[in-house]
Write a structure and sequence with these properties.
The complex is a heterodimer of chains A (153) and B (291). Chain A is of the alpha+beta class. Chain A is built from five helices and five strands. Chain A has a five-stranded mixed beta sheet, with helices on both faces. In chain A, helix 2 crosses helix 5 and helix 3 packs parallel to helix 5. Chain B has 291 residues and is α+β, with helices and mostly antiparallel strands. Chain B contains twelve helices and 14 strands. The radius of gyration of chain B is 19 Å and the shape is globular. Classes of the chains: A alpha+beta (153), B alpha+beta (291).
Chain lengths: 153, 291
């Protein structure tokens, strides 16, 4: 069936099978490979995107369910050549090691800061609890998200 | 991983959804949050012929208090339940459980009604529903049934819905007087299934004795288990550590946990007993305005 999804402000219209997963629509159809596939069983959060503003695991959403919706991926964080405050803070505070979980962590962090610009350590840890960093670099991820909040306020 | 091929409909109203389900019969399966159904389809544990996606049926997104009960509609996400003032005002056990369902991303998508309908014995919500005496509203093109949760849960992954029926709402009754409740969950990590979950619900009468007690267990039986023997034993009694220890002993012997990766059966029984005691103690403190 034909669907149209607004990804990072650009309209993507494609014919897809109902079983097409949103993550594959983003990666293979729209060509945006910043969204990663990790566990493929909704356990790890590497495939996190914002669906109408809310973080979700795109391996566990059908592309047809996103018809008419707005999706934001890591490629949509920076605006006008300027890094998003969360991206700048991850760079500054070494919030990544291998980088595989990073797109999901930054999107969850950006969604948290929209609602709560100055989260506590515990609030950040709660927000990222569905995202796994297998390098176990959580301390710098938490620091980076908090720092980005501080800059925005 | 990909599911088997299926047909897909996205009705825009409840009437249209019910008409589609009636037409499809056993081939039709409701898709709400999809956080259990889609993984099961990807793992090829489920292969429905036709998904009826109700995410466009906005009339089912409600969480509202009316006619002596709290109603949670089929599109209310776990995150909506966790942040709902109506829920925290209405029932301690529900409010306590909501933040512990899976992880924040799954809670943004998955629904309470979907979890109830799924009847996974390791799911959290049905223990809560058993403890608080909830009912499930099932609609089909030919009418509506209000099914007590004890009749709705049939067995392991099995509910009592008929072909063409869907859950539109779960109703949690209001109570009279002071009350409290908790959902205590032991999990290895966020997002894992419960090793053990215990839902408690306690209502006191005017003299401070137990008017109503609810106890539901997760992941320690072939389905979520209502410990009726302990609930009945507590009614009319003076609440406190001795009574809760007695309820805990009944709960530990009523459950039948498996030895598995999450722990040996003996350990899980001990956790059931301890969490029963702690849950009722927390409920009592709330009921007395101390918690």
């Amino acid at each position: 069936m034909q669907i149209t999804v607004n990804i990072n402000g650009a309209s993507e219209t494609r014919d897809v099978e109902p079983r097409r997963l949103l993550v594959d629509f983003i990666r293979s159809d729209a060509g945006l490979t910043g969204t990663h596939i990790g566990c493929d069983t909704s356990s790890c959060g590497a495939c996190t995107v914002l669906l109408d503003g809310r973080p979700v695991k795109s391996c566990t959403v059908l592309a047809v369910q996103a018809d008419g919706s707005e999706v934001k991926t890591v490629e949509g964080l920076a605006e006008g050549g300027e890094l998003h405050p969360v991206q700048a803070a991850f760079k500054e505070h070494h919030g990544l090691q291998c980088g595989f979980c990073t797109p999901g962590m930054m999107l969850v962090g950006s969604a948290l800061l929209e609602e709560n610009p100055e989260p506590t350590d515990e609030e950040v840890r709660w927000a990222i609890s569905g995202n796994i960093c297998r390098c176990t670099g959580y301390m710098n991820i938490v620091t980076a998200i908090q720092a980005a909040g501080g800059e925005g306020s | 991983m990909y599911p088997s091929a299926f047909e897909y409909s996205a009705p825009g109203s409840l009437e249209e959804a019910l008409a589609t389900l009636a037409e499809l019969g056993d081939e039709g399966r409701v898709l709400a949050g999809g956080q259990s159904l889609i993984p099961m389809m990807k793992l090829r544990l489920a292969a429905p012929g036709h998904l009826v996606d109700i995410n466009g049926v906005n009339e089912l997104a409600h969480i509202s208090e009316s006619n002596g009960h709290l109603a949670v509609g089929a599109l209310a996400r776990h995150a909506d339940v966790a942040s709902s003032e109506a829920v925290s005002r209405h029932n301690h056990t529900l409010a306590s459980a909501a933040p512990w369902v899976s992880d924040p991303l799954v809670r943004n998508r998955g629904t309470l009604c979907g979890s109830v309908a799924h009847c996974d014995p390791e799911g959290d919500w049905n223990s809560v529903m058993l403890a608080v005496g909830a009912s499930v509203v099932a609609r089909s093109s030919s009418g509506e049934r209000v099914i007590p949760i004890t009749d709705f849960i049939v067995d392991f992954f099995t509910n009592s819905l008929d072909s063409g029926e869907m859950v539109t709402e779960v109703r949690i009754p209001a109570y009279q007087g002071s009350a409290g409740g908790a959902y205590l969950k032991l999990e290895r990590k966020v997002g894992d299934y419960a090793t053990v979950g215990v839902a408690t619900h306690l209502v006191l009468d005017g003299s401070g004795n137990v008017a109503e007690a609810g106890l539901g267990l997760t992941a320690v039986y072939g389905h979520n288990l209502k410990v009726t023997e302990a609930e009945d034993m507590m009614v009319g009694q003076v609440p406190g550590p001795e009574l809760f220890a007695e309820a805990a002993a009944i709960a530990a012997s009523a459950c039948d946990p498996d030895d598995n990766v999450r722990g040996p059966a003996e350990y899980k029984r001990a956790v059931v007993a301890e969490y029963t005691r702690r849950g009722f103690a927390q409920a009592l403190a709330q009921a007395r305005g101390e918690g």
